Amino acid sequence: MDSHAAGLALGVGYCHPVAHAPGEGPVLRNYLSPHEMVSCTVTGEQNLYDNFLHGLKTRPTAPCFGSRVRDDGTVGDYEWQTYHAVSGRIDAMAAALWKLDLVPMAADGKRFLGFFLKNCRDWMIGAMACFRTAVAVVPMYDTLGAEVVTYIQQQTTTTTVICSPSELAKLVESCPFAHVIVTGQAPTQLRARAAGCAFQLHSFSDVEANGRAHLAILPSLPSATYADLAVLCYTSGTTGNPKGAMLTHGNILAAVGVGTYPGISIFNSKSHGPQEVHISYLPLAHVFETVVMHVCLYSGAAIGFYQGDTLKILEDLQALRPTCFVSVPRLYTRIYDKITSGAKAKGGLASALFSRALTSKLEQLHATNTTKHPLWDALVFGKVQRQLGFDRCTKMVCGSAPISAEVKDFLRVAMDVQFIEGYGLTETSAAATLCHPDDVSNFHVGMPSLCCEIKLVDVAEMGYASSKAPPSGEVCVRGPCVFGGYYKMEDKTAEAFDDDGWFHTGDIGLWNSRGCLRIVDRKKNIFKLSQGEYVAAEKIETILGRCKLIAQVFVYGDSLQSYLVAVVVPDAEEVASWAKVNGVASTELSKTSVLHDALSAQIREASKEARLAGFEYVKKIHIEPEVWSVDNGMLTPTFKLKRVDLKKRYQPILDQLYAQAATPTSKL
């Protein structure tokens, strides 16, 4: 085995042999020299439309986009459009956008098209039409309020937006756009209301039909280069107005190159092999799903869109039966909880059999790195996979936030999959590190991706230093996948980069002995307690979030106080099981301190196990029965806590917790 292959097998980063500045660790790069790093110049693609053409050439008559939602809004079986049919639709939409002057040039010389809807086929048709003709996509989460949509429109001067009927209902109340293209069949009453608005309403099908009549203009339209802006990806916005990260075709293609690189790609892209099937439900307004989408298109995969309701994702999984599943820790943890709680609730022989099968497969995984077991797969786990729609699934990919080793290992053996975790940000095109598919070790997010290099910079005030063992510090990234800055925010861009072009992520990481990165803290969202100690709330929330009885937790610290408090949302299913075991009637849960004491005990134990310092212990909690969600404004569309909004909502309760006498450090 040569050194390159050995590196891929072991997941060991390559330490760039140059002297490094004081307060900085060495640069770690994965196997390739700077000139060999994966980028559009290596893959041969110039833009994201070229990337689609690769999939079209590979599987022209194979299914490309599938949907369960019909034009009238009803839901049925998946109906598919081939790569060839999708190509024709892209051409038609591209011609129409220019013929109807829906993407005029802005003052800065750029052309934009807004997207204000959930994932669907029409989203991708519109986006690919933009990529074909050098128009930049401006995605907006479907949950955004009028104020933020207006802010984005005013900053970009975007003229036209694509939306679905549900978003059209919001736009008739307040719409900053001159043109609105609505997908599907909007109700007659809604169309009538829109007719009285200042914007011009178009149906997606009519626009597409216009383009089919004017395909002759396509040769005269510009093509994008790797340096052209592809997506203006607005960050989720946990605080203040969102920032528009400028991602070029080259940035995204660099990330796509990692997902399709020979030897580490988990996708089959050969025309004679089985076709991959992906379910698209993570927001296309986020770069994670955007990159996954283009990896799928390059590979000629079939992409089935969910019906638009995350509460019905299980129905969509059962209907589609994907071969790969890409998600975030929140959903993976819910799948884990659902399966384990269900098995425990059965009791008797069934519960004992499940426990024995799980223990046996976990022991086998840790001893041999094997996820298959003929007996237990046939007797126990095959049934679970079929019930969830994962019977064809062979790989699961996770990003966005940390996930526990317990959940990862469970999914590996219960679903019989390769479980691949990665780390990245909007600003790095979701690609900073990636675990090798064959690596089943835990407590890290993998090696530096093939499209970037990484270094750690000391954060003295938090005790992190590259000179320590293991080396630790703020994660800094540089390479083809790193964005060009924030749109019309030169000050924010300057804050994000140093003089040598390194993007400072704000995350704290450490290198393990194999050159893999572990994210351990957050430089931002830290606060100082009255005794001068710095506390990173997100680190503590991650630790406490592993408690069985806790679904969500918001940790808060006041600089005038010496200790932390928290708002806790209990896990309803786990609490119900706990109440049954402990003989607590459901009607008494809201009246008794027993649940409060149980939650406090789990928090104390988790803090002790994680070896938190005394000042990092949460001393008091408030129990919140309402689950935080995107809909009630407490979570971003990528399921991160909106800290400013949570603080505003719970400020009276937080003040009340602090008004009470504090308990000793060793107890809650």
Describe the structure in your own words.
- This protein is of the alpha/beta class and 668 residues long.
- Among the domains are: 40-63 and 79-267, Rossmann fold (3-Layer(aba) Sandwich); 526-659, ANL, C-terminal domain (GMP Synthetase, Chain A, domain 3, 2-Layer Sandwich).
- It is 36% helix and 20% strand.
- It is built from 21 helices and 27 strands.
- Strands 1-2-19-20-21-22 form a six-stranded antiparallel β-sheet.
- The termini are far apart.
CATH topology of the domain at 40-63 and 79-267: Rossmann fold
User: From the alpha-carbon coordinates, what is the Rg to the nearest angstrom?
Assistant: 25 Å
Helix content: 25-40%
Average of pLDDT:
88
If helices are DSSP runs of H or I spanning 4 or more residues, what is the number of helices?
A: 21
What is the topology, as strand order, of the major beta sheet? 1-2-19-20-21-22
The CATH class of the domain at 40-63 and 79-267 turns out to be: Alpha Beta
Main sheet attributes: strand count, strand direction, barrel closure: 6 strands, antiparallel
Q: Do you know the CATH architecture of the domain at 40-63 and 79-267?
A: 3-Layer(aba) Sandwich
- What is the structural class? alpha/beta
Low-pLDDT residue intervals, each spanning 5 or more residues: 1-19, 662-668
Instruction: Count the beta strands.
Output: 27
Which term fits the overall shape? globular
Which oligomeric form is depicted? single chain
Task: Give the amount of beta strand, in percent.
Answer: 15-25%
Distance between the termini: 54 Å
